[in-house]
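Holo model, flavin-adenine dinucleotide. Inputs:
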Amino acid sequence: MRTHFDAVIIGAGPAGAACAILLAGAGWSVGLVEKQRFPRRKVCGECIAASNLPLLAALGVGAQFDALAGPEIRRIALMHRTRTVIAAMPAAADAAFPWGRALGRETLDTLLRDRACDLGVTIFQPWCVVGIDGEAGNWSCHARAIETERRVLLRSPLLIDAHGSWETLRENATTPPRLHRADDLLAFKANFTGGTLADGLLPILAFAGGYGGMVRAGGGVTTLACCVRRDRLYALRRAAPGMAVGQAVERYLRRACRGVDDALSAALRTGAWIGSGPLRPGVRAGLDAVPFQVGNAAGEAHPIVGEGMSMALQAAFLLCTRLTGQCAPALQSAAGQRALAGHYGLAWRRQFGPRLRLAAAFAHLAMHDASGALMSRLTQLFPALLTQGAIQAGKVRRVSDTLRIADA
Ligand SMILES: Cc1cc2nc3c(=O)[nH]c(=O)nc-3n(C[C@H](O)[C@H](O)[C@H](O)COP(=O)(O)OP(=O)(O)OC[C@H]3O[C@@H](n4cnc5c(N)ncnc54)[C@H](O)[C@@H]3O)c2cc1C
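Output:
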């Protein structure tokens, strides 16, 4: 088994897999470690903003995405209590890819992983990184096979952390678990068949104690995903003792937003509700340092704007165009890598900082009943506010803008 690489990447979500494809495409040897078996479902609204479609094409999965994803998302809506306001989704600036689409994570993540494999990336799966030693230029990554408990030490001068935001990279970590807080946001997702949500409509759900979204993904499946405050979740469970948590969430969403109930009235859930969290919105402390961080490991936006995968894919391009543009000696040295991490961190903040702030503002407005009602009333009077919100959230951004920032 090969254990020495030019780069080791932890996590094969969109961020890690995209980095693996870009580096392997540039001729690097890459080890990619993923703890879960694919295909696997994942809590996510599953909408891929139009700005990412050129990136998926550049990564070599554009044709498969095109064949498998759901209808073009041409309208956006806000659902609050009994009201549903619908507005036009703005078309993206890139005329070849004007509309976003949705695709189940079990399919998207597998497509990207398989593409990395085709390019010669060595995939350790299901393997888990349980510790990291060393420094830039000389990393040692401790990995353990989930099924056999076999352990190996993976060595590389360069390490990329793309392990998301919900798990630790250390086995037997000594830091005490974070205390539960009433305002923690826990995330849930379920898929349904037979729903009546209109093709190409992306409703955002605003309700007391949380927010969510709904969309038609590939194969006629409706994805319903949401975030609910911990205190609201406790209240829901107290009100329905013995009811499974996912079912309690679904019952609440149907009562809180009539549009959800209407869309799912004849629908059948496929598979269980899945949940994870709590969310950790914000920028991570190590963004400007090594190991390099991408995707949710670098920072997380409230998913009300559905831009997490955009940030994961775009950050992979931001980082990897910089890495592959460097001369080899700069990448072998700790100082060279630290300097690069500083530039990357700056570009990341410029690119995604506004999105993080806007998403936080939307999320907090949506989660309170009074401000949710106000948003709903205002958008009823001025539906163009929804279109404008989508523009501000980055939905029309042209991919070359990303690359230009990468070159800045
Ligand atoms: C409710 C909700 C709805 C959302 N809706 C949308 C949406 O509609 N559109 C959108 O763009 N974004 C959405 N997002 C955000 C999106 O899901 C994330 O931003 C995205 O998954 C981040 O990708 P990533 O590659 O950084 O991390 P992940 O997708 O989390 O991938 C990380 C991978 O690392 C693996 N891993 C973890 N620890 C280890 C370890 N120690 N060793 C090896 N592997 C490890 C995990 O198994 C996982 O596969 C939503 C999020 C939530 C919570």
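The chain has one domain: 7-172+281-407. The two ends are 40 Å apart (CA to CA).
Archived with the compound record.
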